[in-house]
Amino acid sequence: MTPPQRPGQPDWRGRGGPPPDPTTQRLPSAGRPEPPTDQLRAQRRSPLTGPTRKIRRAESPADASPTQKIPSTQAPPPPFTETPARPRRRSRQPIVLIGIIVLALVAGGLAGGELFARHRADSILVAVAECVVEDGASVSFGVNPPFLWQYFTGDYTNISVTTDGDRVQSADGMTAEVTLVDVRLHESGDSKGTIGSLDATLSWKSAGIKDTVAENLPGVGNLVTGVRTDPAAGTVILEAGDNNVTAKPVVTDGDLNLEVLEVTGPLPKDAVQSALDGLTKKLNDNYPLGIRAESVEVTGAGVVGKFSSQNASIPNEDANPCFAGL
To answer: How far apart are CA 326 and CA 51, in angstroms?
Structure first.
């Protein structure tokens, strides 16, 4: 029996299939987009965008099977080629370090020897100077050539001696500044060596002159109450109350003397001159190493004398015990 057919609907039997399901039949819609259901059907028909399609995860080297080879992007190493063996060059760094250490040890040894030699020579020469001048003294040495060389050879370029200024032998209040050049300590016969040249500056203060006169001239010196200088006239005035003695320092035949110019008071001039000559002779005779006066100047503080010596012989201990330590 044939079911009733709707008006305008074609017969389905001529097409070889049943008619579409009325509930799922798509109704045409003018001017509106396609319903979502139609898009899902389109996506289901696509093998790449279907919701149930699995996306394969890229395998990492850790997931690969033990036997699977992982392609490497690095270039394969070049084939091994045997090269002739080269002789190894010995490093120079240890040699340089050893050389530096040796030089440091040598420099340290020389510095230590230099200090020891200076200390030794300083102590000896200070003792000699203090014995000669009868006062404290300090000594310094030249630095060229190195002092260690001077010490071992016994040839000193220059030596400087400065006294404390309390006295120089019998002269109270006198300071000595001495420079010795080309000192050669080579003992021979009755000499300890030689001194090429010696220059000395002796500064005698006015108060020291007064004390020296009082100490060495008991009869006359006790009367002296003060000493003052007149640099313009180049004179020294010895004051004894109302009595004065005016004397002029002069150099005569390498000796420093006091020439009496005027005496005010009961003392005769010749007696005063004789007393002062005895004092200056004592001072001149005690100067060692052939020292001779060159010039003298009167200053506001006292008297300054210049002394020198050339090619002086250093006496041994028999002639002057002060030089026994050399």
So the answer is: 118
H or E segment to which residue 199 belongs: strand 191-205
Maximum pairwise Cα distance, the chain? 195
Q: Please give the average per-residue pLDDT across 2-9, as a whole number.
A: 49
| CB contact at 8 A, 195 and 289 | yes
Among the listed residues 122, 197, 202, 213, the one whose alpha carbon sits nearest the alpha carbon of residue 163? 202
Q: In the prediction, which pLDDT does 119 show? A: 82
Which amino acid would we find at residue 248? K
Q: How far apart are the C-alpha atoms of 285 and 298, rounded to whole Å?
A: 22
If residue 198 lies in a helix (H) or strand (E), which one and from where to where? Answer: strand 191-205
pLDDT digits (tens, 9 = 90+) for 14-30: 444 455 554 444 544 44
Classify 321 as helix, strand or coil: helix
DSSP 73: -
Helices (H), the chain: 36-45, 93-133, 147-153, 206-216, 218-221, 269-285
**Could you report the per-residue pLDDT of 26-56, keeping only the tens digit for each?**
544 444 545 444 444 444 444 444 444 554 5
pLDDT digits (tens, 9 = 90+) for 85-129: 555 555 677 777 777 777 776 666 666 767 777 888 889 999 999
Alpha carbons 135 and 164: distance in angstroms, whole number = 7
Which residue carries 């021979």 as its tokens? Answer: 188
Paired sense of beta strands 167-168 and 171-172, if any = antiparallel
Angle (CA) 275-281-282 rounded to 5° is 95
Q: In what order do the strands lie in the sheet with 226-230?
A: 226-230, 235-240, 243-252, 255-264
Give the Å distances, CA to CA, from 37 to 51, 53, 204, 241, 272.
14, 19, 134, 149, 154
φ, ψ (nearest 5 deg) of residue 260: -75, 125
3-state secondary structure of 108: helix
